[in-house]
């Protein structure tokens, strides 16, 4: 097997962590980052995203139906736009790196941002370009050199074999004092630690790196960002098996935006999840129940 080199700290000592889809995940003994090892090559990674199937549910690796997710993503994108907007009341230029079909950019433009997007998947870049009416290149090299006030990466950093290099390149494209905001699965979540077969984000070769608040902080710092603030969002608690089974279709329907539950049923289901969350908090206070990390980091003035 190829020699291990941690993509975050460069450490060469690792320990087996988990194995899924025929890929081995290892954990760096020095910084704790979990990564696919051996790391697939750049061509293999790029080829993975060039098939329309990745975004249309014909592939167990990709999105169930990315287009149907638009509605489900909206409240998350609204919250994120509010958070980044507080830093730039005057708005400015915003780049969404890994913009997929361009849903976030569409909302950002409605909020007064001047938008640009990058999307590695050529079919997805073309969809975004048509719907937004702007060119959406597949690499940073094809982007105009004018600096950005804001750069966003939603569930992208875990797909990158060398995230610090990409974050550094993005920092170079940013105006002094600019803000970068990203989200990624939280691998400190108790399922990722103690019930790995349940953790939905272990998805190599799509997800190559797995971050905790500490390793994400380190990656952003090493890429040259400062004033790094990381929030844990989306508490995901475990329900008793019977409830988990009977609400599974509602849960997946809510996740992909297809479910339109009766408001009372939805309120009841949310109350049950909240109660489960409270119970879990009391029973195992050491557990991290938050499924997602959201970070904001600034380029020095
Ligand atoms: Zn490391």
Description:
The chain is of the alpha/beta class. The chain folds into two domains: 205 residues, 3-Layer(aba) Sandwich (Rossmann fold), CATH 3.40.50.150; 43 residues. The protein is built from ten helices and ten strands. The chain has a six-stranded mixed beta sheet, with helices on both faces. It has a four-stranded antiparallel beta sheet with strand order 1-2-3-8, with no helix packed on it. The longest helix has 21 residues. It is globular, with a radius of gyration of 19 Å. The mean pLDDT is 90. The structure holds zinc ion. Zinc ion (ZN) binds next to loops.
Key words describing this protein structure:
binds zinc ion, 10 strands, 6-stranded mixed β-sheet, Rossmann fold, 2 domains, alpha/beta
What is the compact description of this entry?
This protein has 301 residues and is α/β, with parallel strands linked by helices. It is 34% helix and 22% strand. The protein has two domains: 205 residues, Vaccinia Virus protein VP39 (Rossmann fold), CATH 3.40.50.150; 43 residues.
How are the SSEs ordered, and which strands pair?
Blueprint (H helix, E strand, L loop, with lengths): L13 E7 L2 E6 L5 E3 L5 H7 L21 H16 L7 E5 L5 H8 L3 E5 L3 H11 L15 E7 L8 H10 L1 E12 L4 H5 L14 E2 L2 H10 L3 E10 L5 H6 L1 H9 L6 H21 L6 E9 L3
Parallel strand pairs: 4-5, 4-6, 6-7
Antiparallel strand pairs: 1-2, 2-3, 3-8, 7-10, 9-10
Helix pairs in contact: 2-3
The structure holds zinc ion.
The site of zinc ion has 8 residues, from loops.
């Amino acid at each position: 097997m190829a020699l291990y080199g941690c993509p975050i700290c460069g450490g060469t000592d690792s320990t087996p962590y988990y194995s899924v889809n025929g890929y081995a995940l290892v954990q760096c003994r020095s910084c704790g980052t979990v990564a696919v090892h051996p790391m697939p090559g750049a061509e293999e990674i790029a080829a993975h995203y060039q098939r329309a199937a990745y975004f249309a549910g014909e592939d167990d690796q990709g999105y169930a139906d990315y287009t149907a997710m638009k509605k489900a993503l909206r409240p998350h994108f609204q919250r994120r736009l509010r958070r980044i907007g507080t830093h730039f009341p005057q708005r400015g230029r915003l780049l969404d790196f890994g913009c997929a079909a361009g849903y976030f950019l569409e909302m950002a433009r409605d909020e007064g941002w001047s938008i640009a997007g990058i999307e590695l998947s050529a079919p997805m870049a073309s969809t975004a370009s048509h719907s937004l009416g702007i060119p959406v290149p597949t690499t940073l090299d094809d982007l105009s050199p004018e600096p950005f006030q804001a750069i966003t990466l939603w569930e992208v950093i875990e797909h990158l074999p060398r995230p610090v290099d990409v974050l550094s390149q993005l920092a170079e494209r940013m105006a002094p004092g600019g803000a970068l905001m990203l989200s990624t699965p939280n691998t400190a979540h108790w399922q990722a630690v103690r019930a790995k077969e349940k953790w939905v984000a272990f998805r190599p070769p799509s997800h190559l790196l797995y971050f905790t608040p500490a390793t994400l902080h380190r990656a952003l710092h090493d890429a040259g960002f400062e004033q790094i603030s990381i929030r844990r969002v989306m508490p995901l608690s475990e329900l008793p098996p019977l409830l988990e089974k009977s609400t599974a279709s509602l849960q997946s329907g809510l996740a992909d935006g297809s479910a339109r539950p009766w408001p009372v049923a939805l309120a009841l289901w949310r109350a049950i999840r909240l109660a489960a969350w409270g119970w879990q908090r009391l029973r195992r206070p050491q557990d991290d129940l938050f499924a997602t990390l959201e970070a904001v980091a600034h380029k020095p003035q």
